[in-house]
Write a structure and sequence with these properties.
It is a single chain. By secondary structure, the chain is mostly helical. It is 57% helix and 4% strand. A two-stranded antiparallel sheet has the order 1-2.
Length: 196
């Protein structure tokens, strides 16, 4: 490759852009070219910049063809998901119908869009939408006033008397946790935007 001659303006621009350009990949290109402009050989530039000598040559070719502006052009292709056009529709649907599992979300996505994705892809898509797998808060039970009075009466007329006897040594009191059916909603986790 022929030696490259840098103008003073280009050297100043490279020095500035290697720190200030918003894309870190372009910053690296600017750093490589700035190091070359300082008279370092390509192997030394590659070592200092953490790239291969082949990459240094590629950046130099880009610079030769179009100057600093050629280095700023992005050559990275960002793949577009087939689900992207349905993102808002799915976001609205999942806000109203949060799925409890990825399989449930997978079935809903396929039903709504006709696009089938594997569970790992569905999980990643849910996260891109802003959904997270969250533990559900407990659903408060409804306690009516009659039940509250009954519990207060039991506490005052029976339990407190037995506890007093236990403190005096006349009785032993054991507490056992009862097993019973849970009457009400009982979910562990949901994919949702906020904790429910």
């Amino acid at each position: 490759m022929h030696p490259i001659h840098f103008t003073e303006e280009d050297i100043q621009a490279l020095n500035r852009e290697r720190f200030e350009y918003p894309d870190p990949r372009v910053q690296r290109k600017m750093e490589v070219l700035w190091l070359v402009s300082q008279g370092l050989n390509r192997a030394e530039v590659a070592r200092l910049a953490g790239v291969s000598t082949k990459t240094v040559r590629r950046y130099l070719k880009q610079y030769n063809k179009g100057g600093i502006e050629a280095l700023k052009r992005s050559q990275y292709r960002v793949p577009q998901s087939e689900l992207a056009p349905y993102a808002e529709t799915l976001k609205e649907y999942f806000a109203n119908h949060p799925p409890s599992t990825v399989k449930e979300a997978q079935a809903a996505i396929e039903k709504l869009t006709g696009v089938r994705r594997e569970e790992t892809q569905v999980r990643a898509f849910l996260k891109r939408l802003g959904l997270r797998r969250r533990k559900v808060a407990t659903v408060p039970g409804k306690v009516d006033d009659a039940k509250k009075k009954e519990q207060r009466a039991f506490l005052e007329t029976e339990l407190n008397l037995r506890l007093d006897d236990a403190e005096a040594g006349r009785r032993k009191v054991f507490f056992v946790d009862a097993s019973h059916f849970v009457h009400g909603a009982f979910l562990c986790y949901l994919w949702s935007f906020v904790r429910s």
